[in-house]
């Protein structure tokens, strides 16, 4: 791979309700940081990251777009979806509502994005989860089980992972899993 900056450039978009952690996942991916109190009015718009998929012998540049706070106005336009190869559909595992709402985000994606787009459902904030009722604050109880997430993803033909932008667990893995799927489609000529 010497001498090659990257083999592919892929556009990724990140959707889901406000406050599920979309900007935080993007910051974690591109900057290896976590902000406890990010400014909600200043959503991160864009970040890029090189990832290597060793078994394909490929370096991929991910260009990731976040909704930058516009999700609460439902003003996301077609141009946001245009040319996207991958999508992270994010909910918060401690918020049932965000899991319910993810259905309408998927509907949006299906309406506006390329039909071959690879979508991964990401249950974020697993660092907050505990089943121990005596756990000290700020641990919150999980409102969406792993099995529910997995099952719905399967029904909808989505990839699935649970992650934490705070601890970093599975953040790169989520992007990598989606990227592998996209490269496989490229290989199959889809
Ligand atoms: P967005 O509106 O979907 O982009 O959400 P933000 O990235 O702005 O995050 C909303 C809030 O959740 C912020 O206070 C973040 O610090 C917090 N947050 C985001 N991801 C995580 C996570 O994985 N774990 C925890 N504990 N908090 C998170």
Give an overview in words:
The chain has 190 residues and is an alpha/beta fold. 32% of the residues lie in helices and 24% in strands. It has helices spanning 22-31, 78-81, 96-112, 146-156, 171-188, and strands at residues 8-15, 46-53, 58-66, 84-92, 118-124, 159-162. The chain has a 6-stranded mixed sheet with strand order 2-3-1-4-5-6, with helices on both faces. Helix 4 (146-156) links the parallel strand 5 and strand 6. 39% of the residues are buried. The model has no long low-confidence stretch (mean pLDDT 88). Bound molecules: guanosine-5'-diphosphate. Guanosine-5'-diphosphate is lined by residues 18-24, 35-38, 40, 43, 124-125, 127-128, 164-166.
Question: Which terms summarize this structure?
Answer:
190 residues; alpha/beta; 6-stranded mixed sheet; 6 strands; Small_GTP-bd; GTP-binding; P-loop_NTPase; GTPase activity; lipoprotein
Short description:
Belongs to the small GTPase superfamily. Rab family. With 190 residues, the chain is an alpha/beta fold.
């Amino acid at each position: 791979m010497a001498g090659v900056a990257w083999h592919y450039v892929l556009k990724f978009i990140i959707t889901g309700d406000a406050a599920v952690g979309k900007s935080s996942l993007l910051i974690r991916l591109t900057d290896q940081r976590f902000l406890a109190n990010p400014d909600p009015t200043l959503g991160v718009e864009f970040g890029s990251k090189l990832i290597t998929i060793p078994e394909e012998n490929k370096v991929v540049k991910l260009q990731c777009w976040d909704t930058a706070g516009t999700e609460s106005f439902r003003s996301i336009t077609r141009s946001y979806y245009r040319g996207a190869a991958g999508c992270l559909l994010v909910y918060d595992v401690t918020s049932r509502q965000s899991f319910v709402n993810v259905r309408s985000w998927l509907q949006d994606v299906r309406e506006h994005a390329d039909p071959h787009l690879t979508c991964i459902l990401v249950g974020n904030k697993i660092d907050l989860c505990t089943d121990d009722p005596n756990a000290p604050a700020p641990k919150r109880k999980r409102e969406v089980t792993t099995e529910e997430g997995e099952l719905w993803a399967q029904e909808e033909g989505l990839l699935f992972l649970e992650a934490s932008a705070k601890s970093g667990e599975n953040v790169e893995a989520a992007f990598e899993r989606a990227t592998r799927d996209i490269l496989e489609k490229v290989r199959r000529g889809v």
